[in-house]
Structure formats: structure tokens, C-alpha cells
Design a protein that fits this description.
Elements lengths: L2 H13 L2 H9 L14 H8 L2 H9 L14 H8 L2 H9 L6 H19 L5 H22 L1
Helix pairs in contact: 1-2, 1-3, 3-4, 3-5, 5-6, 7-8
Amino acid sequence: MAPAADDALLQPAADGSLESVEAALGQGASINARGEFGDSALNVAVRQGHKDLVQRLLDRGADLENVGGADQTPLMNAAFAGNIGIVRLLLAKGAKVTNGLLTSVQMKVNILEENAESGMVRPDAVEAWKQFLQFLIDAQAKAEA
């Protein structure tokens, strides 16, 4: 492991700089290097919505189930950001839909529903999150079948 190279991996992952990520890996950074709170480059890239970079990290063997800050896996990071494209990519690579993820998304739906009743959230946003929750439920069921 090369600590300086590891440090040079995480910020470019957050910025979406594929070239800088590749340079850090070329200098010996570990694909699964973790920052102060446990986030890997994959967790960070997912949270920021950098799909091409996420794909490259996965192709290079990044840990799909790394538990980073706030005890979140990359799939949780993508789901909470509402990034369905990255969620689909992670699921296709074998990421696991946990009961904890489903519970958290259900809580978000509940809060959105409550706020929609008082006019603070658009009803179509609530419906979109409900559909997303059902998508995750179906993905979990499919993986367990």
C-alpha cells in the first residue's frame, strides 16, 4: 500500500477526475483505499454521481460492499442520492440490497408523503420515490430467488 498515493485517490474520485484517479492507481494507490471515515473512492464517486468513474473503479476491482461513512455501502450512497443509473450498475455487478437500505428509503418516502400533504413536496416526487423503493424491493427479491 502506498499511503501518499492512497490519499491522492479519494479527492479526484469525489471530483470525478478519471485521469487523476488512474494516475493515483498507477502510483500504487489501493483501489480500496479508505478515507478518514471509511469511504473508498467508489463510495465517494457514487455519492457524487460520477457513473463513468464508478464503472472504471468496478472494472478495476473496487469493493462493492465497502462500508464507509454513516455505515453506508456504495449502493446505499447511490440510492440515497436517487441516482438510479448508478444503482442499476451496482446491482448488475452484484451489490446487495439490504433490509437496512429498504428501511431507510421507506423512511424517506414516509417523510416525503408527510411533507406533500402540507404542500412542501410535489406529489410526483413522492410517487417517484415510491417507485424507486419498489424497484429496490424487487431487486432484493430477485437476488434472493
